[in-house]
Amino acid sequence: MSGTPPAPGRTTVPYHEDRSPGSGALPPRPWYAGSDAARLSLNGRWRFRLSPTVADTDTAFTAPEFDDAGWSELEVPGHWVLQGHGAPAYTNTAYPFPVDPPRVPDENPTGDHRHRFDLPPNWPGGPAVLHFGGVESCARVWLNGTELGHFKGSRSAHEFAVGPLLRPRGNVLAVRVHQWSSGSYLEDQDQWWLPGIFREVELHSRPEGAVADHFVHAGYDHTTGLGTLRVSCDPPGRVTVPSLGLDLATDESATVAVRPWTAEDPVLYDGELVTPGERIPLRIGFRTVRVADGLLQVNGRRILLRGVNRHEFDPHRGRALDRGTMRRDLLMMKRHNLNAVRTSHYPPHPAFLDLCDELGMWVVEECDLETHGFRALGWRNNPVDDPRWEPALLDRARRTVERDKNHPSVIMWSLGNECGTGQGLSAMAAWMRRRDPSRPLHYEGDPSCADTDVYSLMYADHAEVERIGRRTEEPPDDAELAARRRDLPFVLCEYGHAMGNGPGGLSEYQRLFETYPRCQGGFVWEWLDHGLHRTTPQGAEFHAYGGDFGEELHDANFVCDGLVFPDRTPSPGLTELKKVVEPVRITEGGSGDGPPRTVVIRNLHDFADLSGLAFSWAYEVDGVAHASGTLTVPDTAAGATAEVELPPVLSAPGGTRADGSYPEAWWTVRAVLAEGTAWAAAGHEVAWGQLPAPAPGDRTGPPVGPPVAPRRSGADLTLGPGVFDPATGLLTAVAGEAVHGPRLEVWRAPTDNDEAASGPSDPGPAAAWRRAGLHRMRHRTDDVALSPEALTVRTRVAAAGTDAALRVVHRWTAAAELLRLEVTVEPEGEWHVPLPRLGLRMAVAGSLGRVRWYGGGPGEGYPDSRAAARLGRWESSVDALQTPYVRPQENGARPGVRWAELTRADGTGLRIDGVPEFFLTARRWTTEELDAARHTTDLTPGERVRLHLDHAQHGLGSRSCGPGVLPRYRLTAGPARFAFTFSAVR
Ligand code: GAL
């Protein structure tokens, strides 16, 4: 056989371009981590040669004696494009080659791999299979010179019978991998194109009588508390579950009292399946999934999905993930109150599902299928609507279900993602229903829901979700389908697009999920930024995105839209999500005037009562705890609410703040794990709430001092601790600190959500802002006026080419050591765009590198994404205030700030008190520099610290894919008043 493609005009196409899923591979079977049958890992350093086209290759390399001394080496599992051969490429929906299914281009990078191995001395001999966990996108395989077959279906396992071909020593495995194949048309997921053998390669001994297939059926009847177990198996054998006293023949069923499996309490019973040739450990979770009464139910209860979409990705290794990374992902998810994963958009490494069983996650497992690139072509020639592709589609469905059917965590199968509609999908659904009637089916792409059991949408806005919750949404045309769909539960398979700074509006979605039983939650898009780790020639590290590898077609940083950064540090979006989806809601109780005397604890778990949590309270004055204790909360069932008394009013030192205002008092109530779990230690915080508390008794403080009058002395204009430029009225120093005067600022470096266009007629907020000139506002000083009490500076702030402006009055006053600024803003002319921000911008010395503040923290927060901002005293360096979004953009604002101190190493510096509370941002570069940067390494610290004291910010929204900023979070140009007091920190 040769790898040469047929000449043009030939009617047959070569194997990698035919529509078949392949030939020669064994039928799929369940994956399990191990058994008593021997396994040999073939991972490691392999020999490798890359050819730019298929035509350049012949099959001489498959001969065992072939001399590969001149070849390079490659790590398997891995992707050759991440190991110095060729380059990765990113497209969202477009196929990176001409669309002519099933044909692919001549330029088809082809990687030939060779691996020589010996069998261990104790290798049992007899039947064995060669196991490939995943190869992108088409592989042809030879062992010891004999061809085994070829396969497509990148994220499915494929196995070949190899027993008779094996020798004790000097086996040579040869694998030819084509980057492009007919299979590529079915794998148009929004991610990097990363060819290679990216999952493990193993040899499995399959002794006579070993398990060819087994299916664990373990249901739970919530009305009786009994679980029913039946394990079917080929060949027959016995099943034991010692802790349940079970010893059964396969296919025999037994019903016993059990604790059910749920994502909240993932009880697994250890068992064993024994056939004449093999003993397989089983981990059995009893649970029953059903769609009944219009709800998705597990063990008889509606569940609420607090989910994320998870792609497999690592910034160094691409989709070749190790188990440690999988476990870390899951631990982070659990610790952030997440309970569900959609395996977008392909079966994950199966070990991930073992971990989901063990740690507790509801999993929607998706087949490796997406044909999104056909949408731009009006879905012409869409493979899912062409019977010739049906074997390939069915093969993908089969390989998904057969490999992973024994996982209790998998509660739904998903046909695929964004394939439009077609008979191929129906054929997959029919097969899946027959094979596994125990799990509902999901697919988002067909609004009629003809083949599915749940109604699913992506990125529906809040209003649409509310209509669906009320069952008043626009129905599909067909009356029968409309009636059927109206009775289905609803999930958002994608929402809250986490690209860059955002998403905003998560709390509002959660409120809908908690209000309407039909709305059963969803999966935020997505878990992780897929930025690839790179180093500049100067040695600075950064994460690369689409276009950084010379791709002729690409979708830039749309691949970086996750809740965690590529290196898996949480982004503020994850912290926000954790707070929003918390399974216990802590709010103020009581009614009427005055601070609350009770706290309301709502148990939002689906199954668990509150006995696993310990509650505590703290009484804090301006962020300093003055008293704390434990809060006794009665055992409250899932779905129930308890109202608990707070301790009697406490006395605490009061006094006044630096600017003469009174401190505030708050209760902070926290719920932490009472005992360690498999995913977090005792004391891990699950939920919290803050409630206003009675103010401290003593509300007197030192008088601020009599007002001071402004003075002109020589070239300077002074007012108390402030020094001003007499011509511009700009502050040049305060309390001995050189500053570059606060002036009005409305521009922010647009976020990915700001930048998003939704079509030629709607280029998005950032484009509208730029058109309005908000990034090039000019300041004119109209008046610098002195009176005995105040210095008043009037300015007009406007952009070239427009008569829309902001009139600003700065009224400066001083008392003793304090310098106070009251700002009044009045728009003039017609404003057709919201403002990105409204506040003051100033520069201070770079040495003021430490920040302490009382306000929201510790992380950033924006108007529609600040649920996680906790009122308290926080401290950080200026550098650590930055959020390193892969594409630099507005970030780092701390919301609800009452006062902040910027200090240098010796502790001296500047204090700013704000009324009302403000957003504080401090960075070592300007907004213009931030706006211009494309990668984090484009930003270099300047000499000064740039401060933004914002009265308001425009919301974030989720417009990079989904709804924009909700009306209540839009920052409309309107009259505004706000004030700041500047003083020294000594
Ligand atoms: C969806 C798609 C995802 C991803 C997302 C945007 O349409 O299913 O794969 O592309 O949009 O990031």
Overview of the structural elements:
This protein is mostly beta strands. It has a 17-stranded antiparallel β-sheet that branches. Helix 3 (390-404) links the parallel strand 28 (362-366) and strand 29 (410-414). It is globular. 50% of the residues are buried. Beta-D-galactopyranose binds at residues 92, 189-190, 344-345, 417-418, 458, 494, 497, 525, 561, 961. The site of beta-D-galactopyranose has 13 residues, from loops.
As a percent range, the share of strand residues is: 35-45%
Spans where pLDDT lies below 50 across 5 or more residues: 1-9
Structural class: mainly beta
Spell out the CATH superfamily of the largest domain: Glycosidases
CATH architecture assignment of the largest domain: Alpha-Beta Barrel
The radius of gyration is 32 Å
Number of strands: 59
In helices, the fraction of residues equals 10-25%
Number of domains: 5
Q: Quick check: average pLDDT?
A: 96
CATH class wording of the largest domain? Alpha Beta
* Number of contiguous helices: 11
CATH topological fold name of the largest domain: TIM Barrel
Give a list of the ligands.
Answer: beta-D-galactopyranose
What overall geometry do the principal axes of the alpha carbons give?
globular
Distance between the termini: 83 Å
EC number: 3.2.1.23
Domain Beta galactosidase small chain/: 722-983
Protein name: Beta-galactosidase
Region (Disordered): 1-30, 692-714
